[in-house]
Amino acid sequence: MTYENLDSELINVLLNDGRASLRGIAEELDVSVTTVSNHLEDLQDTGVITSYTPTLDYDSLGYDVTAVIQLKVEGTALPDVTARLQDQPRMISVYEVTGDHDIIAIGKYTDTDEMNQQIKTLLSDADINESNTSVVLNTASEHEQFEIGEES
């Protein structure tokens, strides 16, 4: 293992098993536990690794309705609307985008009534001019991460 590739390899090991022990990672990468610990701390301190969280299967928890919500927002209100959306229950992703709409938000709901209620709440926001909502019929891929340093 060369040290110039160590951070990428460390990230890739964690992508495959976020609960891997330092000792297990060190053995896999053929470096010392101290080296792994130091590099891991550096990756956290620089914000490359931001958290360790489980990946949930929302469908199995009853949130089997996914909505893609596109919003047109009033002029300078974009940062405010984006911040309010981040605080909304059931919103799992919020993006400021280019194109016909200003924001794309992804929400998970237990049923269409719950989704409809949140959309109505959004539309009552004076800073939101227009919305377009698509309900996901089939999830082909979700929450996917890719290994660092891999060629596409």
Write up what this structure looks like:
The protein is an alpha+beta fold. It is built from five helices and four strands; from the N terminus they run H-H-H-E-H-E-E-H-E. It has a four-stranded antiparallel β-sheet, covered by helices on one side. Strand 2 (91-96) and strand 3 (103-109) form a beta hairpin. Helix 2 (22-29) crosses helix 3 (33-45). The longest helix has 14 residues, at 3-16. The protein is elongated. The two termini are 23 Å apart.
Please outline what is shown here.
The chain is α+β, with helices and mostly antiparallel strands. The protein contains 5 helices and 4 strands. It has a 4-stranded antiparallel sheet, with helices on one face.
Shape: elongated
Average predicted local confidence, pLDDT: 91
Strand line-up in the sheet with most strands: 2-3-1-4
Share of residues in strands: 15-25%
Structural class: alpha+beta
Helices, by number, come to: 5
Low-confidence parts, pLDDT < 50 over ≥5 residues? none
* Ends apart, CA distance between termini: 23 Å
How helix-rich are the residues, as a percent range?
A: 25-40%
Number of strands: 4
Order of helices and strands: HHHEHEEHE
Biggest sheet details: 4 strands, antiparallel
Q: Could you tell me the radius of gyration in angstroms?
A: 20 Å
Produce the secondary structure layout.
Layout: H1 3-16, H2 22-29, H3 33-45, E1 65-73, H4 78-86, E2 91-96, E3 103-109, H5 112-123, E4 128-135
Antiparallel strand pairs: 1-3, 1-4, 2-3
Helix pairs in contact: 2-3
